[in-house]
Amino acid sequence: NAGVMQNPRHLVRRRGQEARLRCSPMKGHSHVYWYRQLPEEGLKFMVYLQKENIIDESGMPKERFSAEFPKEGPSILRIQQVVRGDSAAYFCASRTSGGTYEQYFGPGTRLTVT
Amino acid sequence: QKEVEQNSGPLSVPEGAIASLNCTYSDRGSQSFFWYRQYSGKSPELIMFIYSNGDKEDGRFTAQLNKASQYVSLLIRDSQPSDSATYLCAVRGNTGKLIFGQGTTLQVKP
Question: Could you report the per-residue pLDDT of A69-85, keeping only the tens digit for each?
Fold first, then answer.
């Protein structure tokens, strides 16, 4: 399967724990975007990364959230000390360099904070 | 004013009819526009993208762009019950991020 891969698909955390969400882009894609979809709300941009660089983090909450895309391995979205309001679907999307900018989404990680 | 606006619906059409979904955007400098389909509990799936004024057709789908009026639309011909989903309009922002509307829920009744 050459599509965007995300894991885990479902993640349950208690308040105060850490959540780590992983994203492997499509083969040949070097640009990764993370989006969050809160219940009954639209998709909101969080962060844009290329290998080893954060390009745009204008949508990331200032505290508790971080992202990385190392030279080797998947991109990781990390949420420290989760709260109930972090419960949402987190989607990763990837695209190629240049061209037409279309992004392809992974299946998402559904985070539930209890 | 929201950057990308869509009527949340639901838009209900009978099977075989044309479904028309509309979207307006606020940034006059926007260049790229995308339509995604999202089934309940699933991830967004890219249907079409459009950059130039006018129409772009792909199978039963036609995207229409009018930059002067700042709107983009999606027409679905011969609507099928399997087309029932939420349709998301997105505009490419700076750095390539997508700015989404709230989505329009389409219901196609057999």
Answer: 999 999 999 999 999 99
Q: What percent of chain B is modeled with pLDDT above 90? A: 90
Cβ-Cβ pairs closer than 8 A, A with B, add up to: 58
Contact A91, A42 (CB under 8 A): no
* CB A111, CB A44: distance < 8 Å: no
Give the closest-approach CA distance of A110 to chain B in angstroms. 9
Of the listed ranges A36-45, A73-82, B59-68, the least confidently predicted one is: A36-45
A57: CB partners within 8 A, 6+ apart: A46, A47, A48, A67
- Contact across the interface for B97 and A56, Cβ inside 8 Å: yes
Please answer whether residues A75 and A54 qualify as being in contact, where contact means their C-beta atoms are separated by less than 8 angstroms. Answer: no
Instruction: Name the interface residues of A facing B (CB cutoff 8 Å).
Output: 31, 33, 35, 41-45, 48, 55-56, 59, 91, 93, 95, 100-108
pLDDT of residue B1: 63
